[in-house]
Amino acid sequence: MKQKPHILLLLATLVAVAMTSCNKDTATSDAVDPDAAKFVVLSEAIPDAILEIRYYGTYNFVGARIDGYLQPTALMVREAADSLRAVSDDLVAQGYRLKIYDAYRPQRAVDHFVRWASNIDDTAMKRYFYPDVDKSRLFELEYIMERSGHTRGSTVDLTIFDMRTEKEVDMGGTFDWFGSESHPDCGGDPETGTYRPNDTITAEQFANRMILRRAMMRHGFKPLDTEWWHFTLRNEPYPDTYFNLPVKTL
User: Fold this and answer.
1) Catalytic residue among 52, 142, 204, 227
2) Helices (H), 34-192
3) Does residue 227 carry a catalytic annotation?
């Protein structure tokens, strides 16, 4: 049966609307986050850096890939990345390379940590990261918080790799260990670099921590008093912004 012109016009309009809607949805899903322009990929900014992105894999205190980590890469805001490049150049001249565990962390990842910490029964990785801490106290002891400096884009968790021995430098403790052994003042005074004999870390391990700490501080980063591996750019450009951009190549 021959269709009337006005019916054909209506059908054409409906098809056009549907295609526009489909294209709009596709464009929205593929849209670039406007915050992406503030960030750089650390493997591009610092080619000498070694990446071991723990939250992309399953060897972390949760025991699963963390929300928001879409690729095993690391991001920081441009200003922080520039300063970290200076740290890298400094340490390369001493025979070391940076090894990065985590840098920018999206808010959705922090939310994942909070959900995990609220589930008291999930202790799959307790023996590896918090054997001496009752999981019910993680919020009280501030091992887990609803906000993280990492989410502002200027904080990094890292260690150093010795190019002469071809091994990670012995810091006397592991990344993300929940305990006083992770404190920079464990075994000595980090302000003066003076070692204090103890049963936790050796003089060499304490000195290794100081190599990283001094290099980071020379180039504008400030340390955290509870984690030897954690540093934040002193003059961070977005001190009040908590980004949610996923971690992936930009």
Assistant:
1) 227
2) 42-45, 78-93, 107-118, 126-129
3) yes
Distances in Å between the Cα of 199 and the Cα atoms of 181, 203, 213, 249 are: 10, 11, 22, 43
pLDDT computed for residue 11 by the predictor? 43
Extents of the domains making up the chain: 1-30, 39-233
184 conformational bin, left if phi > 0, alpha if psi -120 to 50, beta if neither: alpha
CA distance linking residue 102 with residue 62, whole number of Å = 15
**Cα separations in angstroms, 21 against 13, 25, 30, 162:** 12, 6, 14, 55
Query: CA-CA distance, 155 to 74, in Å (whole number)?
Result: 11
Low-confidence ranges of the chain (pLDDT < 70): 1-31
CB atoms within 10 A of CB 41: 18
Q: Which of 247, 242, 222 is nearest to 233 (CA)?
A: 222
**In the prediction, which pLDDT does 10 show?**
41
The model's pTM is: 0.87
pLDDT in the model for residue 32: 73
Mean pLDDT across the chain = 91
Cross-strand partners of 174: none
CATH architecture, range 39-233: 2-Layer Sandwich (3.30)
